[in-house]
Amino acid sequence: xxxxxxxxCLVDVMRxxxxxxxxxxLESAGCEVVVPEQQTCCGxxxxxxxxxxxARQLAEKFLDEFESxxxxxxxxxxxxxxxxxxxxxxxxxxxxxxxxxxxVKARVFELTDFLFNVVKLDTLPAATAASFKGxxxxxxSCCGLRELGVKEQPRALxxxxxxxxxQEMNEARACCGFGGTFAVKYGDISxxxxxDKCANIHESGAGAVxxxxxxxxxxxxxxxxxxxxxxxxVLHVAQVLSGDA
Length: 245
Known about the structure:
Elements: E1 2-5, H1 9-14, H2 16-28, E2 32-34, H3 44-48, H4 52-66, E3 71-74, H5 77-90, H6 95-105, E4 108-110, H7 111-118, E5 134-138, H8 142-148, H9 152-158, E6 164-166, H10 182-185, H11 187-204, E7 208-211, H12 214-226, E8 233-236, H13 237-242
Parallel strand pairs: 1-2, 1-3, 3-4, 5-6, 5-7, 7-8
Helix pairs in contact: 5-8, 7-9, 11-12
């Protein structure tokens, strides 16, 4: 099957290695992976900030670039949630684009949901010298959990990675405090929320926190480092599943 990978702007700019790990996983499942070179942003920042026209333009751009694929896979709950949950609102005044979206939405999947429920990946890529071994804990990103129903999929896949032990933290489903522009507008509240998340990570005793959304990843890692924790690793689920970290 031909899969279009929407790599996301944050992965592209901040952590491109996550995109390569996603490709490795998809190819190991027998997919032909294509990464359209002109892709940019899903439009969520503009939409959240009230710039509907910018979001509309990016939604149309997404359709132009991805509607020809058998499936569209996104290694981010927030970007996947934007496409599957909010594009209907963004394009509500344009019936022709809504009709195109209706045909695309059913083929859009968050990465772990696609690997677990569509291709039913049973064997992970071989471990490497860089493969993480030890105790991990998992953070459920708000959009992936509440908009896409991503919860059991990453956990079931992580259970297949030999040498990795999952230790659930308290309030794994609680927000990390990022929330896109929320962290900018309400910095004090955001900091208090992420401090609670970091405390729960520490209490789990895990050597790494694993997650599926780069916004959460950057927020949690940044707060851990600023408060003196330079040991706990913060890893995208694709990196652990692929054996790349």
